[in-house]
Amino acid sequence: MNVTPWLRPGVIAAAFLILIPLFGAGFCPERTRALRASVPHFALITSPGLLCIPYALVAFSFGDLRPGWLLLYALLPIAIAALMDQARDVDVKRAGNWRDFAVLLGLGLAVDLRWFESAWPAGLAALGKMLLLDAGIFGFLVVRQLDGVGFDMRLRAKDAGVGLREFCTFAVVVGVPLGLGLGFLHLHALLPSPLRFAGALLFTFVFIAIPEELFFRGWVQNLLERRLGRSLALIVTAAIFGLAHWNKRTATFNWRYVLMAAIAGLFYGRAWRDQRRVGASAIAHASVDTFWSIWLR
Questions:
Q1: Which residue would you say has higher pLDDT here, 240 or 295?
Q2: Cα-based angle 182, 186, 191 (whole degrees, multiple of 5)
Q3: Side-chain-facing half-sphere of 187: CA atoms under 13 Å
């Protein structure tokens, strides 16, 4: 990974601003929910437009500030907030509304099909994905006040126990045998330093597992349960999670990746619904990805 683009002051400032909603909601969930009652309604809907600032900082640092992208990053979060506000008003039974699924579909496709990556300098597209996550966090957690998400980064021992249980079950019973049999996994006999392993696990947990588990389990599976029931929602969400990996590590449909990710998604979903905690499923997810990247890629 080339870290040079990340060392510019504007990029550092943008990354800091982008992480505020994630860590704010993760470490202060009660205060995050309380924002709706303490902010005037107009400000509640329009304030997400400030998410255009990180884009502006990055683009200005590279001398490539484009008005069209600036406008999109200002208006899209406002549109999400407005839709979530409407969903909260009309969905009095909290059963899930078409607006919820429209927003999730839009965010998911934007990330999976890389619609907005051309807005960002080379190597910095991850910032764009995190901006979309921030828009979702504000929309679903602050405006929509969606319950049952379980997004709390103040981890408990139970989170680790459940997450590691699902990781071990997946790896031993299904993941490693099937992955080796399909030629998807390749064993590497190496012993990384404890520092490298811990760093890889922490990075994967914060920047890959937490965002994906919040989206797929905290939002998608959570809402589908209200329509489909626990078991079918688990299966459908895992299938969607698998299909979201169709273009990873290849330019064509990577069916092996889709299959392995879908099966893993079943175990991540089980971890989340055990206590309805994103932290538990994120630990399972981060463990799988870290062990895969070091020993089995």
A1: 240
A2: 155
A3: 7
Sign of CA dihedral 201, 207, 211, 212: negative
Distance CA 138, CA 22 (A): 9
pLDDT in tens, 53-107: 999 999 999 999 999 999 999 999 999 999 999 999 999 999 999 999 999 999 9
Neighbours of 180 (CB within 10 A): 13
Report phi then psi at 123, rounded to 5.
90, -5
Burial class (CB in 10 A: 0-12, 13-18, 19+), 275: middle
**Whether the Cβ atoms of residue 150 and residue 272 lie closer than 8 Å to each other:** yes
- CB-based contacts of 214: which residues, under 8 Å, 6+ apart? 133, 136, 137, 149, 151, 278
Token readout for 76 is 């899209």
Question: How many CB atoms neighbour CB 45 within 10 A?
Answer: 19
Q: Do the beta carbons of residue 83 and residue 39 sit within 8 Å?
A: no
| Nearest to 75, CA basis, from 54, 93, 92, 50 | 50
Length of the chain: 297
Residue 170, both tokens? 């997946």
Q: For residue 25, what are the contacts with CB-CB under 8 A and spacing of at least 6?
A: 32, 137, 141, 142, 151
Cα 141-143-148 angle, rounded to 5 deg: 35
Angle between helices 255-275 and 157-169 (to 10 degrees): 150
pLDDT of res. 134: 98
Helix (H), strand (E) at residue 168: helix 157-169
How far is 5 from 276, CA to CA, in rounded Å?
A: 38
Consecutive H or E run containing 53:
helix 52-61
